[in-house]
Design a protein that fits this description.
The complex is a heterodimer of chains A (about 375) and B (about 325).
Chain A (H helix, E strand, L loop, with lengths): L4 E4 L7 H11 L5 E3 L7 H9 L7 H15 L4 E4 L9 H11 L5 E4 L1 E2 L2 E2 L1 H8 L8 H28 L8 H13 L5 H17 L11 E6 L1 H5 L7 H7 L3 E4 L3 H18 L12 H13 L4 E7 L3 H17 L3 E6 L6 H19 L10 E2 L1
Parallel strand pairs in A: 1-2, 1-3, 3-4, 7-8, 7-9, 9-10
Antiparallel strand pairs in A: 5-6
Chain B lengths: L3 E9 L3 E7 L5 E8 L4 H18 L4 E9 L3 H8 L3 E2 L2 H12 L5 E5 L4 E7 L2 E7 L8 H11 L6 H6 L12 H13 L4 H19 L10 E4 L6 H11 L3 E2 L7 H13 L17 E7 L8 E7 L2 E6 L10 E2 L2
Parallel strand pairs in B: 1-4, 4-5, 6-9, 9-10
Antiparallel strand pairs in B: 1-2, 2-3, 6-7, 7-8, 11-12, 12-13
Helix pairs in contact in B: 3-9, 4-7, 6-7, 7-8
Classes of the chains: A alpha/beta (about 375), B alpha/beta (about 325).
Chain lengths: ~375, ~325
């Protein structure tokens, strides 16, 4: 027999693993089953787009697809944790649409209108475990945040050094193992052990030094398309295939732990271009772009979902920066299309351009592309 | 007999297919421009057939040392022709144009489904923009509106030049442009004014979409199928207040570029296995679903004389056949 409450939640990159682990650690296992969500596929977005308003940004549609998949698997408690821009208003609309479709469920939003309120969140989550003590809730919450922080540190390290590996695919194996191990973390001491284990493992991976002719590309822009690879047609992986060095700033750790403190720094960095913080991640996009230019990156890719207003606000400023600092910036907009052909063409051309610029010689375009 | 070295470049666009054969010095020995009509393989066969006839008529015999494909069907045709280079059209266009105009600084390109703006400084591509999400303001829009007005697409340019007072047509979105056009036609605007209006709207759309934030400097070269439309060329000159260069071969630049890239890519100088009698070879494509995961990628299987030569279309390598290009 199935449990009374079955919990489903949307996917964002690999973060569904620590979220799953957090929920599993706090719920009453006699009462609640937490569903491990599927990774996003074509079907997710097709189903999600079917029931979403046409002009809403694409993260909404992905979330809806995830909810529908969860409901099909029997979920009757759905969770939303998004916020920051108009994403923060999405949960009410999503709840209404899903209820209008005839589904019966409890909808829990992690954030309030004013932001995170730990006491209120505790009361909301008590439904999944009536005996949950506040101290235990705080302990597990802190543990989850620390897990995400450590996971982000590792993933960022692997991403930044991916093409510096001497033996191919070592990082892929470590990542897979690491994600599985996250599911075993339920105490602080286990987290410390986890951290030590993977610090050691990552140190053992032999890296080469960055050469002057390595192409360095930075990715800036909206958070969902930055962090969920499916929504950007795996743009990072695509760039890594070209043996580029790829950097992006946006991670969950950055958003929940660092962004608040970095605001002053961001505004200082972007001064001369903007006078006030115009919301969401737009000013961060500008500051990060300037930082990447300082670090001698060769090109920058700006990504956003169709209709994302904070990033649209940032674009004219990026265009100005591109002109003044002589750095190519490619703008990509994602919506619900499922073919990646157009994006692949643009990425290939962008890479070719940077490569030619570096070589200053057309005859030297290396033909090492494996086509599929 | 000592044969000359030849390099084939084919640019298979959504609307038209372009092909050239060049020699060692990048001179065009044969070229062809035909409609793709949704059948890229057939169009390519036709082009190779024309090459064969042109070469025979001019008494040139060639050994092929490079085959390059570009354009939206580049992977399919590259596989069929066993190309040594498959490259995106942006790179191909830039290199083709630089060969013809070494001092070019801005390339405007409008094709059937897409448009590009390529910024070049000192012979190096430094920035580019390509339309995203929608095909407004491209050749497809022009040809559908020509059909609506009952004129040949080839005549649009000439008719537009006769207009003294071009109609104002909304430029942002093709759907709005079309309703603007219909309304103005119904209240009595003349055909030449409407056509000139369409040409202006294509240019406005292009500059609003791609020109945003980019500095357009002399020398400006305009190419792609739409560059054959003198009405659009004039509209660009008026909007930019600059001289616009259009080469006689402006429609072939992508094909020329990819031929040059294929020449440069063949470093070890080996002759490629290529037969001009490709018309007799039977190519078939069969679509299947991968079913390896819930993405259910559509895989295209390519058969040459009933023998599987390539598989593509999958998101991961599971359903694809991996073929390495040197």
């Amino acid at each position: 027999m199935r449990k009374k409450y079955i919990v489903g939640f949307p996917v964002l990159g690999n973060y569904y693993i620590p979220i799953y682990n957090f929920l599993n650690n706090i719920v009453d296992k006699e009462l609640v089953e937490v569903l491990m969500p599927n990774k996003i596929t074509d079907e997710t977005i097709v189903n999600g787009a079917k029931v979403s308003p046409d002009f809403v940004c694409v993260p909404f549609k992905y979330n809806m697809g995830n909810y529908i998949e969860a409901i099909e698997k029997g979920a009757n408690v759905l969770i939303q944790a998004g916020g920051g821009c108009r994403y923060g208003y999405y949960f009410e609309l999503q709840e209404q649409i899903l209820k209008d479709m005839g589904n019966d469920f409890i909808f829990i939003s992690f954030l309030e209108e004013e932001g995170l309120n730990i006491k209120k969140l505790y009361n909301k989550l008590k439904i999944l475990n009536p005996n949950l003590r506040f101290s235990e809730f705080c302990y597990q919450g802190g543990l989850a945040v620390s897990t995400v922080k450590i996971m982000d540190d590792f993933e960022t390290y692997m991403r930044n050094n991916y093409n510096l590996q001497i033996n191919e695919n070592e990082f892929d194996k470590i990542e897979e193992e690491m994600l599985n191990d996250i599911l075993k973390i339920n105490t602080l001491s286990k987290l410390v052990k986890f951290k030590n284990k993977y610090v050691k493992k990552l140190k053992q991976v032999n890296l080469r030094k960055i050469n002057n002719d390595d192409i360095k590309i930075g990715i800036v822009g909206e958070l969902f398309t930055s962090m969920e690879p499916f929504s950007s047609f795996f743009i990072e992986k695509e760039l890594l295939n070209y043996k580029c060095i790829v950097k992006r700033y946006t991670t969950v750790t950055y958003l929940i732990l660092q962004k608040g403190f970095a605001k002053k720094k961001v505004m200082k960095k972007a001064s001369g271009y903007i006078d006030y913080h115009f919301g969401a991640d737009g000013p961060e996009t500008i500051a990060h772009t300037l930082e990447l230019i300082d670090k001698n990156y060769d090109g920058i890719i700006h990504i956003k979902p169709f209709g994302c207003s904070p990033e649209i606000n940032a674009m004219p400023i990026l265009q100005k920066i591109s002109r003044e600092k002589n750095i190519p910036i490619m703008y990509l907009t994602f919506d619900e299309q499922t073919t990646s052909t157009g994006i692949k063409t643009r990425i290939e051309a962008f890479y070719d351009m940077l490569k030619m610029k570096k070589d200053q010689n057309y005859a030297n375009i290396k033909e090492e592309k494996v086509y599929e | 007999m000592n044969k000359q070295k030849g390099y084939i470049g084919i640019d298979i666009g959504s609307i038209s297919t372009k092909g050239v054969i060049i020699d060692d010095k990048n001179n065009i020995l044969a070229s062809e421009y035909i409609w793709t009509e949704g059948a890229p393989i057939k169009a390519t066969k036709k082009i190779i057939e024309t090459f064969k006839n042109t070469l025979e008529n001019n008494n040139i015999s060639l050994d092929i040392y490079g085959i390059g494909t570009t354009g939206s069907a580049r992977n399919l045709i590259g596989s069929i022709l066993n190309a040594n280079v498959i490259k995106n059209e942006i790179t191909a266009h830039a290199i083709g144009t630089l060969n013809t105009f070494p001092d070019v600084k801005t390339i405007l390109e409008i094709g059937g489904q897409d448009s590009k703006l390529i910024i070049i400084r000192n012979g190096i591509v430094v920035d580019y923009a390509m339309n995203t999400l929608c095909a407004a303001g491209t050749g497809a829009f022009l040809s559908s509106q020509a059909k609506r007005l009952g004129v040949n697409i080839e005549d649009i340019g000439k008719i537009a030049l006769t207009s003294k007072n071009p109609s104002k047509i909304a430029a942002r979105c093709t759907v709005f442009a079309e309703s603007d056009l219909v309304h103005k036609a119904q209240i009595g605007h003349t055909k030449e004014d409407l056509i000139a209006g369409i040409c202006n709207s294509v240019v406005q759309n292009y500059l609003n979409n791609l020109g945003k934030g980019k500095i357009i400097e002399d020398k400006v070269v305009f190419q792609g199928g739409v560059s054959k439309n003198i009405g659009v060329v004039k509209a660009f000159e008026n909007a930019l207040n600059k001289k616009i260069y259009v080469d006689d071969n402006s429609h072939l630049m992508g094909a020329l570029g990819i031929a040059i890239i294929s020449k440069n890519a063949n470093k070890n100088g080996n002759k490629l296995d290529f037969d001009f009698n490709i018309k007799e070879v039977d190519f078939k494509t069969i679509g299947t679903e991968c079913n390896g995961c819930s993405n259910n990628c559509e895989i295209i299987n390519i058969y040459k004389d009933n023998k599987l030569i390539d598989k593509m279309g999958g998101r991961c390598q599971k359903g694809n056949m991996i073929k390495k290009i040197v």
